[in-house]
């Protein structure tokens, strides 16, 4: 699952499952959540939280993993049912500052 954000300062990306720590075998690589050997128990709601000193936002993703019957009648490879997001990736506003000066008399 991909979660991207950009900004200055660089935002921090964290993943959780149902607001709890991720299962030990899940990894976050460059903001993307990697679930090796996904199984039905990995189904559920995942949250990508993006934060920086400027603010924070989060995106909820529901992952449904189902097993599909193999050609020999046994259970085969997991099938991921993940609809495309209906929103753009969260982007935090850039931290900016403005200096205004006027001539002194």
From TrEMBL:
PROSITE patterns: IG_LIKE. Keywords: Disulfide bond, Immunoglobulin domain, Repeat, Signal. CDD domains: Ig. Residues 1-62 form the Ig-like domain. One of its GO terms (cellular component) is neuron projection. It holds the Pfam family I-set. This is Basement membrane-specific heparan sulfate proteoglycan core protein. It comes from bird metagenome.
């Amino acid at each position: 699952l991909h979660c991207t954000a950009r900004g200055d300062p660089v935002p921090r990306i964290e993943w959780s499952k149902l607001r709890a720590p991720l299962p030990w075998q899940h990894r976050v690589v460059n903001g993307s959540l990697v679930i090796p050997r996904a199984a039905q128990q990995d189904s559920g709601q995942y949250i990508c939280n993006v934060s920086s000193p400027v603010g924070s936002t989060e995106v909820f993703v529901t992952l449904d993993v189902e097993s599909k019957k193999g050609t020999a009648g046994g259970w085969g490879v997991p099938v991921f049912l993940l609809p495309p997001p209906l929103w753009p990736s969260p982007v935090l506003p850039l931290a900016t500052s403005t200096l205004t000066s006027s001539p002194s008399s």
